[in-house]
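I hope you will forgive my troubling you with a question about protein structure. I set the record out below, with my sincere thanks for your time.
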Amino acid sequence: MTASTTATPCTVITIDGPAAAGKGTLARRLAEHYGFAYLDTGLLYRAVGRRLLDRGGDPCDVAAAVEVASSLRPEALEDPTLRSDETASAASQVAVIPDVRQTLLQFQKRFAASPPGGAPGVVIDGRDIGTVVCPHTPYKLFVMASLEERVERRLKELREQGIESIHGRVLQEMKDRDARDSQRDVAPLVKSEDALLIDTTEMDPEMVFSVALDHLSAQGLAPPELRS
């Protein structure tokens, strides 16, 4: 049975997958297409990790990480330093702390239940959105790509930011992040059984967007021009 063809404030599209697989690009495109609000949940963990680093603290300090997560505000997600490799590493460390995940889970659920700006729905990307945060939505996508392709994308992104990085270092950092994300005890990175798997290794963003739209339409999500 497919979902209603009319979007409601509770309409949620989830996109999960590993780093540099193309989640963010697809999520932003879908949010713009449907007129939905967008939340990159990875930025929540990056914001916590960044705040701890700025304080000279240890991302593995449970009490400090929970305190930062509890006081996190949406404006913290606009910090440009959240995209650095140092911040990404810290984020992956705080993400394995159960109490941090529980605290940020409530942030995400509030966002999904009450989209900012009165948006008719939300697009949320992360690692456990379709399995933990919004498991009941019928609109689930899981985006992946080969490790080597993801490394090349990350290197390109860094070069565009004026940052020169060594291939071997980026490769190892991505392997480490993949291991932490998939092996943690709480909410590990795993594909929801009812999510569409999209391997973007040999696909450009337009192809990925087209595949996602076809799937969402098949699941009953009407295009924006047909929604009231």
In short: Residues 1-9 have pLDDT under 50 and may be disordered.
